[in-house]
TrEMBL record:
Lineage summary: Eukaryota, Metazoa, Chordata, Craniata, Vertebrata
GO cellular component: actin filament; cytoplasm; plasma membrane
Species of the source: Cyanoderma ruficeps (rufous-capped babbler)
One matching Pfam family: FCH
SUPFAM superfamilies, sorted: BAR/IMD domain-like (SSF103657)
Entry keywords, A to Z: Coiled coil
UniProt-listed InterPro entries: AH/BAR_dom_sf (IPR027267), F_BAR_dom (IPR031160), FCH_dom (IPR001060)
PANTHER family in alphabetical order: PROLINE-SERINE-THREONINE PHOSPHATASE INTERACTING PROTEIN 1 (PTHR23065), PROLINE-SERINE-THREONINE PHOSPHATASE-INTERACTING PROTEIN 2 (PTHR23065:SF9)
Every F-BAR domain range: 12-331
GO biological process per UniProt: actin filament polymerization
Identification of the protein by name: Proline-serine-threonine phosphatase interacting protein 2
């Protein structure tokens, strides 16, 4: 109504009841809804802060209390240490974000209460104006009724009007109409100023709410970027991890000696066989050995027609066996 009246675009179908408060009630309801929306966002920030703080504390407890590769060695151990430290830092970041969200919620609460106090002053003024307007309207309508009644009775009881000094004269009735008209004009001026104030306050609320949402999203994005930087430190430490170095480190740490353990009998037999072959190649074929009573043969087994028989071991002096073998080791 205010904008249409100022621009000269009044719609005849709209209500022109002087005592109607439909428009004012709509404005107040909209402002109350806006205040409620701010309160909901404030509660959202508080709940999000609780979640972020709980998540951050859980991450810190996880990194400190839960074992994660505690028996690893060398480069992989250093990577795991960096991993746990950065997870702890991520948890600290979430706790800091929770504190920031609480501060933003407090700012939203202060802004909401500030607007409430300013609006309350205007509402009190408007309520007083509405009461006074209704009272003046009733008086004006009563004066109008009396005026119209006297006009109808003028022809029939003109003398009665002059005799009754206590009755309202025509000049008094016109004065009442004039006062009522000025009162309506003042009320319209006050209502116009109030509407401008409410509109300005609503613009401020929408702008503040929008900026608060924007700031909240920026804080979440910043937290993600900071977390990614911490994760990048973990990736860099993993790039420095060397499988070969870790294996060599374990071998050097847990080694039991530089010499191999004693050779088994099978390996010893192979050495003796190699020495015999080397000796036969240098001295030519040996004569056919004969069995001496009580000698056991270790050279091998041979079978003829499914029967197993012991083969004689060639009688070679120990010195002949040892000398080529020693010579072979020296080579």
């Amino acid at each position: 109504y205010l904008r249409n009246n100022l621009e000269g675009n009044t719609d005849p179908s709209e209500s022109t009841d002087l005592t109607s408060t439909v428009g004012y009630d709509s404005i107040i309801q909209h402002l109350n809804d806006g205040r409620k929306n701010c309160k909901e966002f404030e509660d959202f920030l508080k709940e999000r802060a609780i979640i972020e703080e709980k998540y951050g504390k859980e991450l810190i407890n996880l990194s400190k209390k839960k074992p994660c590769g505690q028996t690893e060695l060398n480069t992989l151990k250093r990577s795991l240490d960096v991993f746990k430290q950065q997870i702890d830092n991520v948890g600290q970041g979430h706790i800091q974000l929770a504190q920031t969200l609480r501060e933003e919620a407090k700012k939203m609460e202060d802004f909401r209460e500030k607007q409430k106090l300013h609006r309350k002053k205007i509402e009190l003024i408007m309520e007083a104006i509405h009461k006074n307007r209704n009272l003046q309207y009733k008086k004006t309508m009563e004066a109008k009724r009396l005026y119209e009644q006297r006009c109808r009775d003028k022809d029939e009881a003109e003398q009665a009007v002059h005799r009754n000094a206590n009755l309202v004269t025509q000049k008094q009735q016109e004065k009442v109409w004039e006062v009522g008209g000025h009162g309506v004009g003042r009320e319209r001026d006050v209502f116009s100023c109030s509407c401008h104030f409410f509109e300005t306050q609503e613009c401020e609320r929408i702008n503040y709410f929008r900026n608060a949402l924007w700031l909240h999203v920026n804080q979440l994005s910043l937290g993600c970027v900071q977390n990614d930087e911490k994760y990048e430190e973990i990736r860099k430490s993993l790039e420095m991890c060397s499988i070969e170095k870790d294996v060599d480190f374990f071998v050097n740490l847990r080694k039991t000696g530089s010499l191999a353990p004693g050779k088994s009998l099978v390996e010893l037999q192979k050495v003796i066989s190699s020495a015999l072959c080397f000796l036969l190649c240098r001295r030519g074929p040996l004569p056919t050995p004969t069995n001496a009573p009580g000698e056991l043969l270790l050279h091998g087994l041979s079978g003829h027609k499914g029967e197993l028989s012991l083969q004689p071991f060639p009688k070679v002096p120990f010195q002949l066996l040892w000398t080529p073998f020693r010579h072979q080791k020296e080579l």
